[in-house]
Each structure stands twice: as C-alpha cells, then as structure tokens.
What we know:
The complex is a heterodimer of chains A (325) and B (293).
Chain A: H1 2-21, H2 25-48, H3 57-75, H4 79-103, H5 108-128, H6 130-133, H7 148-151, H8 157-180, H9 182-192, H10 194-199, H11 204-230, H12 235-238, H13 241-254, H14 261-280, H15 287-302, H16 306-319
Helix pairs in contact in A: 1-8, 2-8, 2-11, 2-13, 2-14, 3-4, 3-5, 3-11, 4-11, 8-11, 9-11, 13-14, 13-16, 14-15
Chain B: H1 2-7, H2 10-40, H3 47-64, H4 69-92, H5 100-122, E1 135-138, E2 141-144, H6 145-167, H7 169-179, H8 181-186, H9 191-216, H10 224-238, H11 243-263, H12 266-283
Helix pairs in contact in B: 2-6, 2-9, 2-10, 2-11, 3-4, 3-5, 3-9, 3-10, 4-9, 6-7, 6-9, 7-9, 10-11, 11-12
Amino acid sequence: MKGRLAAGIAGLAALIALPFVYRDPYHLHILVLILIWSFAYTSWSIMGRFGLVSLGHGGFMGIGAYVTALLWNHLGLSPWIGIPLSMAAAGALALVVGYPCFRFRITGHYFVLVTLALSGIVLQVVTATRDYTGGSLGYTPNRTRGSGLLALQFDDKTTWYLIALAVWVGGLLIWHWIDRSMSRYALEAISEDEDAAAAAGINVTAEKLKITLISALMTALAGAIYCQYQMFIAPDVVSGIAVSLQMVFAAIVGGLYVSFGPTVGAIITILLAETLRIGFGTQAVGWDNLVYGVLLVLFIIFLPKGILGSLLERVKLQRKPSPAA
Amino acid sequence: MQGFLEFFDIYLVEAVINGILLGGVLALLALGLNLIFGVIDVTWICYAELVMIGMYAMYFIVQYYGISYFIAAPITILLVAVLGALLHYLVIAPLLTAPPINQLLATGGVLFVLQSFATVAFGVDFRNLGIRLPVLALGDMNFSYARLLSFAAALIAMVAVYLFMTRTFTGTAIRAISQDRQIMALMGVDARRIYLVTSALGGALAGLAACLLVLQYDVHPFVGLSFGPITFLICVLGGLGNFIGGFIASFVFAEIISLGGLYSDLEWGYVLAFAFFIVMMFIRPAGLLARRS
Lengths: 325, 293
C-alpha cells in the first residue's frame, strides 16, 4: 500500500512538473481537454458503477456551463460565485428529478429514459431562450478587461493545465472516498436487489439521492470549467443526449469499476478523435463518432468491464498463486 | 358551423386539430417502440435513427432514381424492416442474457453509428423530397395534406398491426411471449424467430413513419434527435410496453406541443411537454394507465 501511495505521489509530481518542462501548446491543449473530460466521465461513473445509468448528465454539464456564462455576461457575476451557483442549480435539478425516480422506484429502462428527458429539456431550453443564450449558434463569455483571476480567464495553457489537473485529482479523490465509504456497500447492495437492501435497513432513496447529488455537482463543475477554458459553448457540445452518451461510452470503454477507467476512456476517445481529425482533415466529420459507436457496441458485447478493468483483472489472476504451488 | 367557429378562437381549433394529426405519427413510432419493449424487453435508443435512415432511403429512391413515391414507400419499409432484424441479430441477440442496461447502451452505440454513417455518407445538408402537397382550407383554417395523409396512413397501419396481433398465429405468439417468456418456449414457440419477426415489424413501423415524416420535414443526419426523445417520453408516460397507454400519451403530448407552439415558439412546446412529463412522473410513475397496487 505504501509503495502505491509513493508511486501516486511521484506520478502526481511528474504531472505537475510537466507543463514547466514541456511547452508545446497543442499537446498541452489536448492534455487539458483530456483532464477536463476525464473529470466529467469520472463524475458520471461515480453513479454509473452502481447501475444508475443516467443519460441526464449532458443536462447537468450544460447547466454548469450556461449558468456560469450567463451570470458573467448578464449580471457581471464572477465565475467564482457563478460556478457554485451553477452547481447548486444542477444539484437542485438532480434532486427534483431524482426524488420521484427513487421514491417510486423508477429503475432500469425507466430511469434511463427519464434522465434522457432531462438532458432533452436542458437542450431545448437553451435553444428556445436564444435571445439570451445564443441558441444553437453557441455562446461566448465576454472577455474580461480587468483581472483574469477574478474572471477565471487565463491566456496561458499552463495555468489551465494546473487547474484541470487539480479538478481531475479532486474527482479521483472523491471516487476513492466513495469507494471506501459505507455508501458504496449500500449502493452495491441496492444495485443487486433493492428489496433485500431495504430489508437490511438501507435507506434506498437517501443513498441514491446522495450519490446522484454528488455526481450532478461534479458534472456541473466540469461543464463550467470546460466553458471557462474553451470560452465557447454550444448546446450540442455541452448538453443533450449526444454528450450523455459520450460520457457513458468513455466510461464503459475505459472501465466503469476502476478509478482510472474513465480517464483511460477519455484518453482513448480524445486521442482517437484528434488522430482522425488530423488524418482525414475536414473529411473526418462523422468518422470519429462512427468508430466510437462501433467500438461501444463491440465493447459492451465482448468487454463489458472496459479496457482497464479487464487488464487489471488479468493481472490480478496472474498474481494469485496457484493452489498447487 | 359558423357559430361554433366564432365561439372558439380559430387558431386554437387549428392548433388542436394539427396536434391530433401530429399525434397519429407519434403514436405510430410509440407503437413500434412499445412492441419491441413489450416482446424483447429491450429499448432501442436508436429507434429514431432508423427512421432517419428510412427518410434518406426515401429521398434517394424518389429524388435520385426518380421512382414514384408510392413505389418507393414499400421499398423503404422493407429496407428498414431488414435493418431492424439485422439490429436484433447482430447487437441484441448476443446480449440477451446481459444486464438490460447493457442492451440499451449497445443500441446507444448503434445510434452513434447510424448518425455518423449518415454524416459520412450523405453530408450534413438538409434535404427534402421536393414534393409539395396542397393545403386544405376549411373555413379560415389551413391543414396540409401531408399531415392528413400521415394521420390516415398511421391509423391504417395501427389497425393492421392490431389485426395481425389478434388474428394470426404469429401475432398471438408475440402477445403470448410478452406475457411469459419462459413458458412459451415450452409451448413449442421458437422465441428467437418471434424476436426476429418482432424486430422486423418494429423496423417496418419505423420505415412507414419515415415515409410519412419525409413529406413534412427535411432530412439531415440529426433529424432523429428532434423526435426520438419525445417518442421515449411517450412510451414511458403510457407505460413501457403498454400499447393503449402509448396511443393515448401520443395525443396528449402532440396537443401540448401543438398548443404550446401556438402561444410561443415550437421549442417551448417541447419544453412544456418535457416539464409535463416530469410532473406526471410524480403523479403516475408507472405510466398513465398503470393500476396502483
């Protein structure tokens, strides 16, 4: 365990030192994107791993991005206040939708479809209020004339890299915190059999609401950070079903049940998209999603534990001493 | 007639009737999805994308090869039916014993594949058939023939499916298998064959919907997203697998969209419909027609 901790700290130190040694802006940009999306995918898998498959996370991400940007542009509210507000908004929405779902035991298909409606609503509201949000053309937070720190707008990639890194590490810590908490056992029991879990004294509704709230808050933060970094958001980039499915896809490809799984998923999907974009140029429109889709189907059929999950399992099996030896 | 029209706001009446016409096509889509859910216990997230492929098929057959609409329609229906059967054979069948969520996500992957296939193959341009049907003027109200035709065709198709389900052996077997999966195999029904037939039937309904929708809407790779989510909501509101509930919910939703669109933008109609849906989840979580146990 001690060796693992040391390796983790060494790895983190190497990641922090990276932008000061290596300064290629394009590669840093890709790294920042990978970190931000890894955080978003980790947020999804925090509840996804317990069988709570939500397609509403595109909605939470959209709220995080749009509320922050709208407060900044229309009210001049700094993202330092705007981001907590947007997270609170996403959390409130998660509770409003989550409570009836869990109270009335809407699970499986029903839960997926209800949350799908949620991301649909956010997408439609953003499009419908086009006078304020710019509709499907997208939206840009105003450039600040004053302090970049106050507006959370930085021009250099190194700062953004460090912010994204901090958020990503925070996400992993939350993942581990939940992994070691009693809630994890409660939620695993719930995902196996709700009645039995309730009979064993687990408050099913409260446990599910708690995990949904954490997940929604983190996803909204991911959306806000993405908006602040890219300085441009469009409804189909940060909300809607496509984004929700993208989260599910990356988490499953990387591996739902291991902490680094969503990160591996983000690395694979973003590198794949970038390689295709560079390789095919403008002809690549659509090709990346085509490959994603085929991979997703193949993975669910042949490797439901994801790449990292399956690899770790194989390593574990090999390490186990055989009974004869 | 005249007094009746004066009594009500004429635009309101027009919106109500247009809502009913829209409801017909939505009911057709909901029927296909409910059929597949009821029998195979799978939700095809990519259902609206099958419709999109069908709309492209109609576009190319009619526009590119210059074949008449009424010959193109059966070809398209057959094509999408084959696509539905293929989807079941290639994706769902290997996953039948997997957790239901995995099946649902796999069809989500198919959604990506179909959408991006259309983007790669046909580009992102909006295309339409170029058929302009006349408009029926009734008093001061205008109704497009395209909508009337869609409504009529959707109703006929639903009656045909009803007759198929109640009057034929295969239809009876389909209904039976949706009631008890295990017993039917013992009764000498080949479940795999029934699943394939159901998937093809669901595909055919999507194909028919494509033929009708292409008359009213332009086709582009993301057209599925504009009516896909609403179809899922209808099925959940009606109770997944509940045919009559789905039928009623289609018209409720269509009216909300149509009336909401009357007072504001069309998107607000959708937002209202979504909000209504979430409120209904509080009141009737298991669907409109569910019996409280």
